[in-house]
Amino acid sequence: MKTYIPKPSEIERKWYLVNAEGKILGRLSSRIAQILSGKDKPTYTPHLDVGDFVVVINAEKVKVTGNKEEKKIYYWHSGYPGGLKERTYQELLDKKPQDIIRKAVRGMLPKSKLGRQMFQKLKVYAGTQHPHQAQKPEQLDL
């Protein structure tokens, strides 16, 4: 038996369109991360990027369970002493709703060059309009 490793010319990439309206953030993000890494394909190889492109629309209408809307806090550090910054879920939803999905999916991908390469195939938009009509994305219900 030989292990099958797909050549770069054999990797087929599809485009998927996901409507985030009314979807739960964690469940949506984990499914998107699976598609980006290619784990839903029979040609999945852990050390290669064989995943597909994902376009997410209506990012501002994503839901969270429990009391996360008031209590969930996103932290980051500027790199300077005392530079710990924070923003609540509601503040982030008002300012940059697409970042909520980006941060959730990014945390579920590998922390390496491969993960950064996979993450580049994610396109998130707050409203219903997106510039990827030419790719003819396939509607995906998650």
Features:
Ribosomal Protein L13p, Chain: A, 4-stranded parallel β-sheet, 6 strands, two-stranded antiparallel ribbon, alpha/beta, single chain, 142 residues, 5 helices
3D structure, described in words:
This protein is an alpha/beta fold. It has one domain: Ribosomal Protein L13p, Chain: A. The protein has five helices and six strands, in the order βαβαββαααββ. A hairpin with a 6-residue loop joins β3 (73-77) and β4. The mean pLDDT is 96.
CATH topology: Ribosomal Protein L13p, Chain: A
How many DSSP helices?
Answer: 5
Taking the alpha carbons of the first and last residues, their distance comes to: 36 Å
Largest sheet, described in full? 4 strands, parallel
What's the CATH architecture?
Answer: Alpha-Beta Complex
Overall morphology:
globular
Rounded mean pLDDT is 96
Helix content: 25-40%
Q: Indicate the structural class.
A: alpha/beta
Instruction: Tally the beta strands.
Output: 6
What Rg is obtained from the alpha carbons, in whole angstroms? 17 Å
Poorly predicted runs of 5 or more residues: none
Q: In order across it, which strands form the biggest sheet?
A: 5-2-1-6
How many domains in all?
1
The named CATH superfamily: Ribosomal protein L13
The CATH class turns out to be: Alpha Beta
Output the helix-strand order.
Answer: EHEHEEHHHEE
**Strand residues, percent:** 15-25%
